[in-house]
């Protein structure tokens, strides 16, 4: 059995952080150690779908206020929000050919942030050459838009498995979480919380409704291991065998801020979700759930599910402003916010189950030091031959109560495709049983974690 030893408050056995160390790990503004590390990566800033119906979108990323726009050529640009002339917002801008004009006096800026036209200044003036705003590279992939705020040249945008698969059904959920990004990521290297926050707590909620419910699964063993793309976590749950996917394979944090999970498609569908935690600023995080539902060859998918990649809000509060208690993702958000805007790690009391948290913090510190030394940190890719392969569990014990229940207990409850996905999955299942069709090949389930 897993022992939750009580540690005495001794810095040798209990790796407390100082206030300064906590600041290093959590603050993301330009010039801060973590802000500079985060600026070495591409971050999602929204969905292609949003810019199909609008020309501009406000974006706050790593403490910077920006405007994403679509110009008259359909090209995306990302520039500082406020016009350097007299600070009107480009959110109200007028798209132009290769750039955007401030709507107040018409000054035009290109995607690099350079001012290229000042229509009411003298024709011979070179004043525009002295005026600029920040301008950053943007790239679209699989229905998402990504931005890079770091030093140029920008690295390659990692094409993680599932994003660029037009054969798959893909959805994007989003949620603005009003707390620092790190407590969200630390949740991903803390397997035991599922036993409580999504198990015993859920049972308590049902108990208050007069329903007897047993969903919590005790952790017999947990394990963590670094690998070339990040950090794997594995769990052995009571009642499961050492051959279970959860223990044999597990799933990774892709450094620094993506959790990848194999989400319950079983042998029928290859489902994978990327939970991407993007710092808006020190006290706010944009959380994205990117899921691809990969259907076996020969199975039909209604064209509407392939033609659109929907972008939808994931809720954690009900219409009265109270926490939603019966949803895994809402339960997580509730816990993260309850830790405070920026959790004070100088006063926490880590136990033996927090060793994944400690390992992750050490990796962050090590990679920040690389950036401080002028080196690229891990997962900065500059050549196309870099391997982005990793393995994911297929049969998760947590997700054994059926596809529809799983969807309802997660962010997918709010997906516009919720009903379609449940119906489609049920029809495939029936077809499989009826015709003994081959299920999706288990190429991901067949390997180990790569440890
Ligand atoms: S404030 Fe933008 S052009 Fe004047
Ligand atoms: Fe959770």
Describe the structure.
β7 and β8 form a beta hairpin. The longest helix is centred in the C-terminal third of the chain and has 18 residues, at 355-372. This protein folds into 2 domains: 42-148, 3-layer Sandwich (Rieske Iron-sulfur Protein); 169-435, Naphthalene 1,2-dioxygenase Alpha Subunit, Chain A, domain 1 (Alpha-Beta Complex), CATH 3.90.380. α10 packs antiparallel against α11 (418-435). The chain has helices at residues 19-26, 33-38, 50-53, 181-187, 193-208, 245-248, 303-307, 328-338, 355-372, 403-409, 418-435, and strands spanning 42-47, 56-61, 64-70, 76-80, 94-96, 99-101, 108-109, 115-117, 135-136, 138-141, 144-148, 169-177, 219-227, 230-237, 251-254, 258-262, 270-281, 284-294, 311-313. The protein has 451 residues and is α+β, with helices and mostly antiparallel strands. The strands form 4 sheets. The protein has an 8-stranded mixed beta sheet with strand order 13-14-15-16-17-18-12-19. It has a 4-stranded antiparallel beta sheet with strand order 2-3-4-9, with no helix packed on it. Strands 5-6-7-8 form a 4-stranded antiparallel beta sheet, with no helix packed on it. It is globular, with a radius of gyration of 23 Å. The two termini are 23 Å apart. FE2/S2 (inorganic) cluster (FES) binds at residues 83, 85-86, 88, 102, 104-105, 107. Residues 83, 85-86, 88, 102, 104-105, 107 line the site of FE2/S2 (inorganic) cluster.
């Amino acid at each position: 059995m897993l022992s939750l030893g009580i540690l005495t408050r001794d810095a040798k056995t209990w790796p407390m952080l100082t206030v300064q160390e906590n600041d290093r790990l959590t603050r993301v503004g330009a010039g801060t150690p973590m802000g500079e590390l985060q600026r070495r990566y591409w971050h999602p800033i929204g969905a292609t779908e949003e810019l199909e119906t609008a020309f501009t979108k406000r974006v706050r990323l790593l403490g910077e206020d920006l405007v994403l726009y679509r110009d008259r050529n359909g090209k995306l640009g990302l520039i500082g929000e406020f016009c350097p002339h007299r600070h009107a917002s480009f959110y109200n801008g007028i798209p132009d050919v290769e750039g955007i004009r401030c709507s107040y006096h018409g000054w035009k800026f290109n995607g690099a942030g350079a001012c290229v036209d000042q229509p009411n200044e003298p024709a011979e003036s070179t004043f525009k050459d002295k005026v600029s705003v920040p301008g950053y590279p943007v790239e679209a992939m699989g229905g998402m838009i990504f931005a890079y705020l770091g030093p140029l040249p920008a690295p390659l945008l990692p094409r993680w498995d599932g994003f660029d698969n037009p054969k798959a059904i893909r959805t994007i959920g989003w949620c603005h979480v009003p707390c620092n990004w790190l407590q969200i990521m630390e949740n991903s290297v803390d397997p035991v919380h599922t036993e409580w926050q999504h198990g015993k707590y859920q049972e308590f909620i049902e108990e208050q409704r007069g329903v007897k419910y047993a969903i919590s699964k005790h952790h017999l063993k947990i394990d963590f291991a670094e690998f070339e793309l990040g950090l794997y976590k594995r769990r052995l749950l009571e009642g499961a065998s050492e051959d279970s996917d959860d223990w044999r394979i597990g799933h990774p944090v892709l450094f620094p801020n993506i959790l990848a999970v194999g989400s319950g498609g079983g042998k029928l569908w290859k489902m994978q979700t990327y939970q991407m935690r993007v710092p808006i600023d020190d006290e706010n995080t944009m959380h994205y759930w990117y899921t691809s539902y990969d259907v076996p060859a020969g199975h039909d998918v209604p064209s509407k599910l392939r033609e659109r990649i929907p972008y939808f809000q994931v809720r954690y509060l009900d219409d009265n402003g109270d926490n939603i208690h019966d949803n895994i993702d809402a339960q997580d958000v509730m816990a993260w916010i309850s830790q405070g805007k920026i959790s004070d790690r100088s006063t926490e009391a880590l136990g033996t189950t927090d060793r994944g948290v400690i390992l992750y913090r050490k990796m962050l510190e090590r990679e920040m030091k690389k950036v401080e030394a002028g080196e690229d940190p891990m997962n900065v890719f500059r050549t196309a031959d870099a391997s982005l392969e990793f393995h994911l569990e297929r049969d998760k014990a947590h997700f054994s109560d059926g596809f529809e229940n799983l969807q309802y207990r997660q962010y997918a409850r709010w997906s516009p495709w919720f009903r379609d996905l449940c119906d489609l999955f049920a029809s495939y299942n029936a077809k499989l049983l009826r015709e003994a069709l081959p299920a999706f090949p288990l190429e991901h389930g067949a390997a180990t974690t790569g440890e």
